[in-house]
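TEACHING EXERCISE
Course module: macromolecular assemblies
Task: Read the component lines below, then compare them to the predicted structure of the full complex.
Student: A.B.
Group: 4
Components provided:
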Amino acid sequence: MEHSVATMMNNIGQQAKSAAKRMVMVASDRKNLALQHAAALLRQECDAIMQANGLDMAAADAKGLSEALKDRLMLNGARIEAMAVGLEQVAGLADPVGAISDLVYRPSGIQVGHMRVPLGVIGMIYESRPNVTIDAAALCLKSGNAVILRGGSESIHSNRALALLMQQALRDSDLPEHAVQLIDSIDRAMVGALLRANAYVDVIIPRGGRSLTERVANESTVPVIKHLDGICHVYIDKDADEKMAVNIAMNAKTHRYGVCNAMETLLVHHDAMAILTPLLPMLLEKGVKVMASADICAAYAELPLQLAVEEDWRTEYLAPELSIRLVDSVEMAMEHIATYGSGHTESIVTDSYATGQLFLRSVDSSSVMWNASTRFADGFEYGLGAEIGISTDRLHVRGPVGLDGLTTQKWIVLGSGQVRS
Amino acid sequence: MEHSVATMMNNIGQQAKSAAKRMVMVASDRKNLALQHAAALLRQECDAIMQANGLDMAAADAKGLSEALKDRLMLNGARIEAMAVGLEQVAGLADPVGAISDLVYRPSGIQVGHMRVPLGVIGMIYESRPNVTIDAAALCLKSGNAVILRGGSESIHSNRALALLMQQALRDSDLPEHAVQLIDSIDRAMVGALLRANAYVDVIIPRGGRSLTERVANESTVPVIKHLDGICHVYIDKDADEKMAVNIAMNAKTHRYGVCNAMETLLVHHDAMAILTPLLPMLLEKGVKVMASADICAAYAELPLQLAVEEDWRTEYLAPELSIRLVDSVEMAMEHIATYGSGHTESIVTDSYATGQLFLRSVDSSSVMWNASTRFADGFEYGLGAEIGISTDRLHVRGPVGLDGLTTQKWIVLGSGQVRS
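Instructor-supplied answer key:
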């Protein structure tokens, strides 16, 4: 590690740690005032932020970035207003910090329970989407954490302006300004330094595509909360209600295509094959390309189906494409999910209590559903109020991550003079 | 990484992952039967195990290991019986897997909640203490995980015998034998391979001294649940009950010396200094060496106190030694704890509601106590039934780690046909 990189990381890390120590104790109303003040500043400084964004956009044009990347990078009045509204929404959420649960008396006479506390210092690594700068800062601040932000280098001017604004909001509210810091260098070695800053950083959250996430996971010695693929399955059991099965399958695939909780593979018990008769034409009519196992292709030879290959079971299409397979049993469906799934979200449609219970217990995904569309796997639908991401990891937090996922619990003991004997 | 090391690790990892998949679904009574059967086998194979241990002990003699290390390594009838009883106790604990909590109806009509599930594959790295082999295997098995064990090389023969016995118990109970695997190689490169086996291992738990733990934490790309120092503090507030303060301080320091939840530094508000008049002679009489701040040394010049130096505040004595400092306020006490503490366990003695509340909320340690001895920071005292270690980390689990700490939660969604609109 170059000397200057190490020095920069140490400075940022120490400042974050000392800010985090102060943030633990900050009362809810003061955090909320800071968030509301940040919203006001965003509206007030709208022009200055668009100016900074203009520098990024010009550089993006010069570099010939794709239209999709430029669309993510671009800020306008409406998008800045949306960020301000987002800050106000986070201010309105319940504060998880300090909540006490499970306080019980033990035979020794002490009361033992848990208190929810901030994680400490969170490192966010994300692509060139300036809105993430505000969004992540708001959630980390509300949950009492300090955050170190590292956005994509193409958004450096926008991020600088937004991070300075958050710091001003913190200062004006008499909160530690280093609770929000941006790594203000496009040197990629800083990412490596952040990923090994175990002395300062409690968790790294990457937000972006697979290559970013994999690099972070492979290099980081700091714990990572990450989201990889969303290869979600719906299994239509032999005891499924036919109408419900068709509804759920259609919604899980066609409600939105580019989202991680969309269905990518439909598994159908061969005794429930009749549901394909209404379902396949509906999918095709919506323009969904269907890759089906040989038995289905044979049975519906009149339809323009494509024969599914092994690779289809492993593919997150994120598009109007769907693979469908017939299975002999719920066990075979679960085996398929265990082999090809990504542990994101799976749903069973069945009216059988025993089969539903088995599926719910045995399938090892961050969300397991029974008679509901996979599209419900979402922080807002689950009542989290906000979502910093969806974890496909196992440790600490799985599935949609809200404010609670940015906190941890300490033990508290209330006594009246008890000693160990 | 040498080819053979990589191959060995891949084999072990794949076997563990496939065992973990089966373990998720195993009912409680079958896990309990396997544990009880393992206890029976331990008693039955007592001689064979002592013979294997004899090989380790002979090698330890030849290598000239210290008496303390040899004592940890040595197995006899009583110790093997204690392991068997431990297995039976774990069998008697409640099974956390499958427990559903917080199931609520959402406006969409779906019910959303959590189900507790195993972590998956746990890597245990520990010193040459053969009892950990049984203890860790039992807790991992009960919580539905697969475990990969890597004990100290001096205990390789004992560990082999014990791991084979656990595998036999699993086979005999029709459970996957690879739910318990021992890295049967003393090649240290295997530890490095385990620490980077992100594809197979969900969490690494090191159990041993500081150098082992630090090596693991610095090298591991797999998340680590670890225990570093226990520099525990008791703070006697100005509003403390004098008798309670003396009792708690004596118990926290002198109940046992070599344990991580013993008090290492006593902080006393200067208005509560009078408690030192009875306390100091009691400590000295017990043979406790006292390092005190200058104001205390001056006030008790007649007592054989030693002047505390900066280094004392950072020291985990694990011995009949104690540092004592006068402070001006609870804030100064908390600042001292934040600067010098290890985030393990701190206790305040006070009758002031406001001061106690402030301490409880603000101190960032895995256990924070009010009017109780730090010695209560223990899985059994907290009602966990068993303890695989005490975490001084922040993510996932803090403080004593029991069966719950070896599990995680997935989301479950119960619907009646709901789709997203």
